[in-house]
Amino acid sequence: MIDRWQPSRGGAEQALAKLARHLATRGHEVIAFTERASADAPGRVQLVPRSWSITRASRERTFAARATAATEERDCDVVVGTRHLARVDLYWPHGGGRHRAFVEFERDLLERGGARRIVCVSELVERELATDFPACRERLVRIENGVDLARFRPQNSVGARIGLRRGLGLSESSVLIAFCAREPTTKGLPVLLAALARLAREPWTLVVAGPRDVAKWRKRARSAGLATDRVRVLSDVDTAELFAAADVCAHPTWRDTSGLVVLEALASGVPTITTRAAGEAAAVHETCGSVIERPGDIDALTAALALWIDRVRARSIDRDVIHASVVHRDESTGLARLEHEIESLAATGQQR
């Protein structure tokens, strides 16, 4: 169950789409119960009538009720959901808003037993849920997100690096810093712009990939005192190509339950700067990046950027060593573990 079945949006939709494709290749029947779906959405789509209620809370509750009823009518063996629901077999949270309706759903799922099993995508999520909702501890299972090691690897860097840099008009002497996010504010772009403004004399170029409002962030960069040619904002970039060309990845997030960007950058052999608020912060060691203890700490972020810019210029980066730090996090392993949990739930009975 998911309100918008649009994998290109990233986040929960993209993660769920990967799981759906994996399950389909394994012979399972996958049905998506949703209000709307894009052409690239996998599985069989069953549209849930949209609610035209005035308030958002009412719309969310109506979707949850209608989607749950639809799964019961189809007599599904296992129901998987990521948000906007009050009852489900396997709950797989991937962030989400803090609207009061979502908070109520969360209590239903975690505190009142609405979810039979809860998959935590990181140690951060597992710790938070166990602390905030002690009643759900026995239903928690940690299955960390994986990364596609065939797409993200240092060997991709030669051709893609030349092509992307040439397309952007960048010289080899420019240190390319990559930032990827659909929601740049939450992921720390304003803090990153402020830190880079302090390093204006350094030979860097920032590529911001993914924001929906390109013009807004170009304007924000200019307001931070950064020249147009030093900050390139692009709405649609292949992240594998971007990390193949990048020298440093900056992900100074305020909140990220997992942080797939961190894994993808590390798998590509790119040193990564993130914060303790990223679920994948534990994957970043001193040989492959820096972890800022407090999100929003401009001084610490500036120092980390200066450190890795210097190391790039000194050519002291070993991309293969960085890649090796996440070689055990192959995407297929995580998907197989999720499949196992789903099959286990199917074997133990129907949704409550």
What is the CATH class designation of the largest domain? Alpha Beta
Q: How many strands, which pairing sense, and closed or not: the largest β-sheet?
A: 6 strands, parallel
What structural category characterises the helix and strand content? alpha/beta
- Percent range for helical residues? 25-40%
Provide the succession of SSEs: EHEEEHEEHEHEHEHEHEHEHEEHHH
**How do the strands of the widest beta sheet line up side by side?**
11-10-9-12-13-14
Q: What is the averaged pLDDT score?
A: 92
Task: State the shape.
Answer: globular
Describe the overall structure.
Helix 1 (11-25) packs across helix 12 and helix 6 packs across helix 10. The protein is α/β, with parallel strands linked by helices. It has helices at residues 11-25, 56-73, 100-111, 123-132, 157-168, 189-197, 214-223, 239-245, 260-267, 298-313, 319-324, 331-347, and strands at residues 4-5, 31-34, 36-37, 44-47, 80-81, 88-91, 115-120, 140-142, 175-180, 204-209, 231-234, 248-251, 272-275, 289-292. A six-stranded parallel sheet has the order 11-10-9-12-13-14, sandwiched between helices. It has a four-stranded parallel sheet with strand order 5-6-7-8, with helices on both faces. It has a two-stranded parallel ribbon with strand order 1-3. It is built from twelve helices and 14 strands. The protein has two domains: 4-146 and 331-347, 3-Layer(aba) Sandwich (Rossmann fold), CATH 3.40.50; 154-324, 3-Layer(aba) Sandwich (Rossmann fold).
